[in-house]
Structure formats: structure tokens, C-alpha cells
Design brief:
Blueprint (H helix, E strand, L loop, with lengths): L3 E3 L25 E4 L2 H12 L4 H15 L9 E7 L6 E6 L36 H12 L4 H14 L1 E2 L2 H9 L1 H5 L2 H7 L11 E2 L2 H13 L2 H4 L1 H13 L6 H5 L4 E3 L2 E5 L2 E5 L6 H12 L9 H22 L10 H4 L2 H9 L25 E6 L5 E7 L9 E2 L4 E2 L40 E5 L2 E6 L6 H15 L3 H6 L3 E2 L7 E3 L6 H9 L4 E3 L8 E6 L4 E6 L7 E4 L1
Parallel strand pairs: 17-18
Antiparallel strand pairs: 1-21, 2-10, 2-21, 3-4, 3-11, 4-7, 5-6, 8-9, 9-14, 10-11, 12-13, 14-15, 15-19, 16-17, 19-20
Helix pairs in contact: 1-2, 1-4, 2-3, 2-4, 4-8, 12-13, 12-15, 12-16, 13-18
Bound molecules: glycine.
Amino acid sequence: MPISRLFIVSLILFGPASVQASPAPERPGQAAIASPHPLATQAGEEVLRAGGNAFDAAVAVSAALAVVEPYGSGLGGGGFFLLHRAEDGHEVMVDARETAPAAARRDMFVDEQGERIPGLSLDTVLAAGIPGLPAALVHLSREYGRLPLGTVLAPAIRYAEDGFEVYSRLLTGLERKRAELAASPASAEVFFPAGDLPELGSRLRQHDLARTLRRLAEQGHDGFYAGPVAEALVAAVQAEGGLWTLEDLAGYRIVERAPIVSRYRGARIVSAPPPSSGGVVLATMLNILEGYDLQALPADAATHLVIEAMRRGYRDRALYLGDPDFVDVPVARLIHPMYAAGLRAAIRTDRAMPSDHLPGLGAREDGPQTTHFSIIDGDGNRAAVTQTLNFWFGSGIMAAGTGVLLNNEMDDFSARPGLPDGFGLVTGEGNAIAPGKRMLSSMTPTFVETPDGVAVLGTPGGSRIISMVLLGVLARVDEQASAGEMVARRRFHHQYLPDRVVHEPDALEAAVVEALRARGHELEETRRDYGNLKVVTWDYGENRVEAATDPRGERGEALVY
Ligand code: GLY
């Protein structure tokens, strides 16, 4: 089969999609993958060529990213896998979010005055939740894939064993996390093999990680959650005063959850349910914006309304969201169009609403870690997957003999309701720490279905994930943007607290900035561009698939074949 590769290294504009609704062809016949690393995309391609489907490819890409992008995600972390099976339309989100260990306590990260103890939820073994990613790989392969787990994990095992070339973003991460990684002997051995930062272009090998992946391939769930790997993980955590037990690992389960479905101007939006806040916040923002014709408004007025929708969506995140297995999240109410109509009624077109005028909670800055990939296969199966260790390399601590980096996802809980987390996000009682509970997330893997086709999208970016996905959805639905146009779109963000609009350099024209300031918005230009959106699309008109990776990502690779 001929292969055409699409390397997106700068802004690429494809022709506009058809505005005429076309009946959906039975199947696209071609596949598309957009991932942040060429080796991960190639792992997906290898598996598709071997007769696998999008779900096999998702396992292959996910595991490959755990090897070649160790700062973004890994076997020691978690993620959300949003799936659509073409043959029966089955839609599900496989929730592989980490859980708090059984001995976790709600005030474990604060002192007697209720103040956060610096670093405890970020750089220590206490920061790590019980990992979910390995369980998801096994589950996806068994329930949805066609090929044996060993076949789909083979590329990742090869990358770990034979190594891959050190690239500049990896070096940036290693520099930023140098002290923490160096303090963990197993991490130091892998990442600083000669005692210092590796050379650009040198090979980084992870033999222990290869062995752990092989165990997973051969033994499935128990290859990670029981036996030597589990024992090594628990020993490493307990040696440093952490809380994990063998029972915590043995008890870890993924949860299959119904996605959040909402509508925006004739499009059907399918996204991540709690314990992600993404789908609910996205639905609220789109419901608010449904009441306006953004395209017909001057740029400053439209941007103002999008900011006010973001403010309200993120306010609800702070107030209401948490793990639905522990707290009652009023999802039906929050995503109801009438609820949004009430929020919309209080939006003034001429003035910003200060966040402290909204009933809510009384927030810091954002990080670029986490990772995302999007896949559609020749039959129309889809996977949108966002996975993470939280901040760069998670806690930086590697359990000796496993190659597994421990996440620092516990920081996504509220250490005390109202206290900002590492992203400056504030959450409430619903996101307090409890044994076995999943911490609230912003990861937002999403499908957009319009009469003309389908887009599969998502991005890393901490608290900014949801606003990036919103801008991607607006571009797709309001402007029929192609995959390439969606990823290239300039970005702005408001997350309720802190009460300010952050925007990429040149995202907003000078006149728009001035008009927003006149309405009372505080604006701040980010030092650099942010996000790494990965989009694949299937346009029905020409029965064509496209894949595009964000020009902001260093090594993203989009493949159509
Ligand atoms: N750790 C980032 C998130 O889940 O939102």
C-alpha cells in the first residue's frame, strides 16, 4: 500500500472542508495517526500494517510514548482512552486515572496551619498515585484489539531495548528536572548514564523498562500489578516513607465510563467524563456559546464572549467536580442547555465579569507535560488518548529494577479545598484526597462529529487543555477548519482564577487587546506558544482522512496511509 507521510513542521493550511453535508461513507479506507513522536506514530503504523485496528494502534502508540517521551507519560502514570467502535457505534472512555493509595489522608500535604508543605505532593514518593496506564493497555488489547498484546507492545519493547536518539525537548526536560532525577539512583542511571546530561543525538536505552514491558506482554495485568514488578514498586515507595502496598496495586482497576455528549451548532461533541473535568467544562462553555453567532461578531466581541464562557466553565470545575465514584457530581445539570442559558444571561457584552463576583472559591501557572495522540483507522474506529505522569517526569523517582517513573498526580487533588494546585487550579471538597479516589483531571480527549465528518483531537497542557480543545472545536464547527488549520490556530485562555486572560504572542490583534482591556480584562502574553494539539479528521465529502500535529511540538508526526 502506498504511504504518504505528512510532516507538519510549520503552519500548514489545507483547503476548506465541504460546507455541504455529505452522507457518511461506510468506511474511510485509509488510516491516520497524529502523535507527538515519530517513533510512536511508526509503532501505530507497524501494528495497523500487521492487521491491527485503531485500538491495537492506540496500545502500541501509548506504550511507545511511555518509552520515547518519558517526561510526558509512562507506565507509572495514567490516562484516558476515548474510543469509538465503528461496527456498532459503541462509545466509551477507558478511565485509567491513578488512584490514591488506601493509606492516603485528606490533609497529607498540609501543615498544622493548613498550608501546603512545599514539594511534598510533587517531588516525593507521597506524590504518586497507583498507576493506571498498564491496566488500560491490557484492557484495550483484550477487549477491543485484534492482535496479541505481545505483538502490539513489540515496538515499545524494541525502543526501550535498542534505545532512541536523545532529542532537544527531552534534554530540556532533563535539565529542568535534573536535581530530582539525579536524586533517584535508578533515574540517574537511565537518564545520566555518564554522570551528566546525555549528548543530543546519543542513544537512550531503558533495559529495565524493556523487561517490565515484556512482563506485561507475557503476563497481562499481573505482569505489572503482582509479582516482581509490583514488589519492586512497593519496596521503592516504602523505602522512602511512602504509602503504597501490594494490595493497592493488586486492587487497581480501570473503569469504563460513558462519555459526556453535548451539542454545538449542529455538531455532536463526545468528550471525557469525570474524573476528568474536561468534557463537562467543554459542554458548559459550548452551551453558553451556542447562544451567540460568534462568526457574525467583530473579533473583540467574539473573543470577549469566549473568555466569559471559559471563566464560567472553569468556575464550575472548581466548585463541583471530583471523582464520581466518591462525590455526587451534578453532571446532568451542568451540561444542560438551560443551565448554560442562566449563565449566559449574566454575561455582559460590554464588560468583563471579575471572577470574584461569581460565587465560587478563592489560584499558579501551567505546565506543558502530559501527552496526547489521535487515531482513526480504515474502518472508522477512533481513539483519542491523553496520558500523563503530571509534571515533567512525574516525581522524577524511578523504582529500581523496573524502569518505571513514579507519577506526581496526587498534586491534582486539592491539598485543602480552595488551595491552588501546581497548575494554579483551585478545587473544592469534591476533589479532597480519600483512599482509593481518583484525582480530578483536565485531560480532554474529544471527538467532534459534524454533518460533514469527524475530528479526533486532544492535547497536553495542564489547566489549558480544556480551553485549547474548546478553540479547536470552535474552529472545526464554526469555520469548518481542517486538521492542519485546527492545530495551527493561535490560543488564549482563562481559567476563572487567577482572573486573567493569558494568550500566545500574536494570538490577538492589538485592537482586540485594547478592546478587551477596555472591557476590564487583564491580559498577559505568554513567554512562548503552548500546547501540542493532535488532530485526525475524516471528511465525508471526498472520503478523505487527514492528520496534523501541532507546529508547536518539536517532533510530532502525522501519518496518513
Ligand atoms: N495531570 C494533569 C491532568 O490530569 O489534568
